[in-house]
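Problem 12. The chain below contains 303 residues. Write out its predicted structure in token notation.
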Amino acid sequence: MQYQPSGILIVDKPADMTSAKVVSRVKQSLKAKKVGHAGTLDPFATGVLVCLINRATRIARFFLQGNKKYKAVLCLGIETDTQDATGRVISRCDEITVSERSLRTAFKMIEGENQQVPPVFSALKQNGIPLYKLARSGKPVQKPARRIFISSVRMLEINLPIIRFEVSCTSGTYIRTLCADIGRTLGCGGHLKELRRLESSGFTLQKAVTVTELEKLALSGKLSEQIIGMSKALEDFPEIVADHTLAKKILHGQTITRADFCSGQIDRRQPGDFIKIVDKKDHLLAIINEQRDNCVYKYCCVL
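Solution.
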């Protein structure tokens, strides 16, 4: 039986390719049984796409809510129905006379915690149907506003009507909606022209391979070397190295209690905190969390 690697592969998604198509290319290149991703990118967007290979798909939930960092291009003076360059133009402002001070104020307003209304052209679903499909069929559905947090936003270049900026934010933030909101604040409208994801859940472009490199590495048999092990991918999680007895209990799905850990191996944590259990070779065996009595642990996933 052919060895099937499991772990995380970071791909630099090209423009005009869906995230699903990238996943398909990764699956084909690795000849993997299962591949998923932790956070989609729109087809026109580029950058970090976190791909989960084989058993790593079981830990997708731990990356889906990770923070993101983007470099974006805002085009003022044009509003579109999709809030980006792929949509239909719904309004124009031919004369843009905003000052740099007004721009900085508008960008400053989006920092911190806010409520954001998701765009009607999005991959969110209504009764199992993506919103963008409903919108295209003339039946747009507006989802309620959601909490987002912008930890930093920085203008990189002002060359009206174009503004290049960088933003760090929580998962679920729509950068095109930020662009549309800034445009409305300035009174001239605006849309997202370009988007590049620089970071997702701590994974950066420095660790990414392009689709072209993906296929070259596959042909040379070196693609598996780019896969990040599951334990390393969760390096911020507190860790327990299992002995033979604990590893056997995990294998059989038996209840784990504090008594299964060596003295001092784990400090006292809050109920709900995630803990990874690895073997002596740093292979991820399971992720657990503490229950309210701080004695019995619940399996979140077993690898």
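Discussion. Residues 27 and 89 are 37 Å apart (CA to CA). Students who got a different answer should revisit the alignment rule from Section 12.3.
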